[in-house]
Protein: MFS general substrate transporter
Amino acid sequence: MNANASTGPKDATSPLSQSSPTSPPHPANDHQTLQSGSGLDEYAGMEEHSGDSGLQGFERSDAEARRPPFVLTRAEVKLLGIAGVGFFLDAYDLFIINPVSTMLQYRLYGGAPLPSGLAGLLKAAANIGSVIGQFLFGYLADALGRRAIYGKELLLIIFATILCLTTPTGSLSPTSSLIYLSIFRILLGVGVGADYPMSASVSSERVSTRKRGVMLAYVFSAQGWGSLVGALVVIIVLLCYSGEKNNDIAGGEDVGWVDGVWRICVGLSLVPAVGTLYQRLTLPEARRWREARGDDVAGDGTDGAEKGDVVGDGEKEKKALGGGKGGKRIDGDGADDDVEAQRNRPSSTSTSTSQELEQDHDAGVDGDLDSDGTHARLRGQRGVGEGEVGGGKGGKVSVRRKGAHFREFLTYFSEWRHAKILIGTSVCWFLLDVAFYGINLNQNVVLQQIGFDGSSGTPWTRLLKIGVGNVIVTALGFVPGYYVSVLTIEYLGRKFIQIQGFLMTALFLGILAGKFHTLSTAAFVVNFAFLQFFFNFGANTTTYCYPAEVFPTRFRASAHGLSAASGKAGAIISALAFNSLSESVGTPVVLWIFFGCSLAGACFTLLLPEVKGRDPDVVDREEMRAAAAARKGVV
Structure:
């Protein structure tokens, strides 16, 4: 079957339709084609289109092309709502534990601090579960498909949240109550962690390359709103219990009302989870994943609208890379150097690659890996050559076997050029989360410095003051940083934002560490606000975006899950070690450790390419094509 059969109508005046099959591509025309005709950058199934709309041939209107990338269409807003709720819950559930742990002090320990070991476990529990969920669900999403997995993580979050609410604080000992709650927060963390690779993959595969970074940054910015809403919820619920504000535990009065406050605060997270569950469970499979798997998308008798596919950059690239007329490759203006170097390759390469695969089949070569892993990767990938692997017109050969994805994953990352990128995304995320969660899971230290630690008054007064302090900290720098990233990510690029973010957080951590005991309250607030701002206008956003943009579709969720799990490992270390280290060596020393982590993160970012305008599937196919050509030369 000719690959052009799946591409739909083309503009008769486009450079793609005028090129001869053997003429080399022209970079200028490639750029023009990408900018003027990269397709409809919405994922289908979210908006209704007429039957003769020709989705697969749709080209973005001039108005859409001129629209800034951070201006979303209605369909993209809906996608943001579906994917963003996971990160809203991530922040809400992970950071609500700070005020909840303070409430449990009064409920279980008469106002005394929680035992340091149990306090660390309670705060680290969700992150421990996240490590499991990120890697497990990331792998399953690549192996089984996004549709088979997406929504299941939300079911797990709902189930675990309900179990957390059942903590029998009145019938168990304080220690047993904290262990009980921690166990189910680990389960909660599995669901929260699973959302990282799932939502990243779903979002990046349903928008055009032009808007991919913006959409990912928008999705991740929901984390800031989760933190802010969590702090506001604590204040609102406390105000509903204002009748208890004069009850003092020192006078022997009952503080059982605290049980109601923390359960309401935790339970309200069920509202957005249940509200988006149906949309996640019914979200169709993405065209990009089906093509990467090798499914015959053109021959399934449906168009993109019925399958919920994106018809954007990926469709044009399929025309260019799948043996279409002219065989021209389309790339973004931010393409990596190794792809730029291949712009002058004659398009006959794609035809020769297809012929080579057919010769291998005729010779009786099966779908197993060669010594370099090239053969199975080529034959398991659609969009190479003319899109068919088989012994003639009559049929195709199924080359994917059980365990094939895992073998392909290991083979792909056994090459240094790929492994160094995975090392870069994983180590940068690890170093970021050591500092980021070390600060944000232990905000009581910060609140103490600005006078909102709730060190005096009745339990109600103290909890309200802590809630107000959390709102101040979140609103000053947490939320604004996300949206500066949204506005600038497609202009400044991911690499620049990540490096400057690491360097600026190092600067403000150094100031806080060196002047921790001498800064005035106003100066401390300003420095801490800037620290939070550059966490989010920096590595906290880009470490999430990078794995979703730099790795090809067939490994995207697995690699994203592994990178995110590395980050959560850093968060676990901070949660468990921060309190004990602060008590033994002092908070300034811990801040100096975070300073060193930030500097190291800037260095490891140098391992990563810039991904603005770069389609990893284009890069992947070019690499496979080059490997096939080299292999043919050896043979």
About this structure: The CA atoms of residues 496 and 610 lie 8 Å apart. The chain is about 65% helix and 0% strand.
